[in-house]
Amino acid sequence: MQVIVCGAGRVGQGIARRLIREQHDVTLVDENAALVDQVSTDLEVRGIFGNGAHPDVLERAGAEDCEMMIAVTQHDEINMVICQVAKSIFKVQTTVARVRSKVYQDKRWKDLFSQDAIPVDLSFSPEISVGEAIVERFRSQGAVMSAKFAEGRVQLVAFDMEKGNPLLDTNLDQIAGLFPDLSARVIGIGRGDRIQAPRSNDTLQKGERAFIAVLASHLPRLNAILGREERDSRLVTIIGAGNVGIYVADALTRLPGVRVRIVEADEGRANAAAQALRRAVVIRGDGLNPDVLEEAGGARSDFVIALTSDDKTNLLVCGLAKQIGVKRTMALVNEPYLADLRKMLQVDAIIDPRALTVSEILKRVRRGRIMELRSLEDGRAEVVEGLTLETSELINQSLGYDEMPDGIAAVCILRDGQVLFPSPDERVKVGDRLTLLFEENRIDEVERYFRVSADYF
């Protein structure tokens, strides 16, 4: 697929890097000539200097042959114009725009992004996506990551396997028998820098990561089994009162028994947060200052969430919070190489905004009837939910650990509103919403499962 990415900032680079890895033809456009040169060299991608909203610039970038236009500049309005020009002049099939302003998210203007107005096929707000992911993670005690599938009925969570975990050294196909009242399934194992689709005789070892699909209503039971019971009341300290910080603080204050304090060094942002957040305490100060952190709750905090615009600050804040006795920490980290410092600094969880953005875009890139998608750990694996058509190779197939091809694991089936976890007797039917985890080298095979076969025509 030929793709043009307008905006060579961190988000644009992250999107381009991922698409290049999958052998797509990518061109990057940006008004910063030095940045274009740098990215062209680093990513070995074609770079075009200029304003992506200008037709002549898009023409030089190859818009006439482009199949997808992705606009992720710093300005919402420029992103919209880029999509308008791409559709109106160059007839680009799919347009994607980053839209950050809350004004454009208002339901009153839901028809703004349509073929009859501004032709944006997919608009997304990283701040909202990140905020929702953080709130989901907050509900999943001890989870390294959390996502929902099957219309929200199934929660995908990842846990670090630590000493004393009851799942250690147990064959995966025996777990259901040990916990018969738990609807859950281990669907991936993180080992070193890989995520592996498991087989029935695989066991979880200390230091690995277990990716577990669990019926959402059974998540408290899973937390209890793993020794991570939720408590009724919690004090949460948020460092950083940007758009994401305010969104998360507002969402958490709406949960029963949750008290929120938010720390911001910039006077203007601190004042804006105080105006926007009536149910949270706003403290002006540096989150790296132990005295400020103590004023915000210190060791009494159940959760510290670092959401500044600087990855290193976020990691250091969480490391400091752990040193003074904070129970759990979470850091916003954009750069994958910095995320590797998580364990060394004892940071419990990482939120990667680019991974969430890439997941949204990959739903449009993937071929077939794909409903949901989540990219895991910089693309080491993916989880997709798709519709099984009558020509799918999986029809009538069992989804047990050892029945699936190497590198692919079945997560669950949503059929007639009911969630079914794989078992030897359960077989795929036409019209199932099937969720799969697959390793990064299995993309083509999984796409084929959700496409109409050429033999059908």
Shape: globular
The largest pleated sheet is described as:
6 strands, parallel
How large a portion of the residues is in β-strands, by DSSP E? 25-35%
Assembly level: single chain
Provide the CATH superfamily of the largest domain.
NAD(P)-binding Rossmann-like Domain
Q: Could you tell me the number of beta strands?
A: 22
Strand line-up across the major sheet: 3-2-1-4-5-6
State the helical fraction.
25-40%
Structural class: alpha/beta
Number of domains: 4
At the fold tier of CATH, the topology name of the largest domain is Rossmann fold
CATH architecture of the largest domain: 3-Layer(aba) Sandwich
End-to-end span in angstroms? 23 Å
Low-confidence region ranges: none
What's the level 1 CATH class of the largest domain?
Alpha Beta
Count of separate DSSP helical elements = 14
Q: What Rg do the Cα atoms give?
A: 23 Å
The averaged pLDDT comes out at 90
Which characteristics define this entry?
single chain; 457 residues; alpha/beta; Rossmann fold; Alpha-Beta Plaits; 4 domains; six-stranded parallel beta sheet; 29% helix; globular
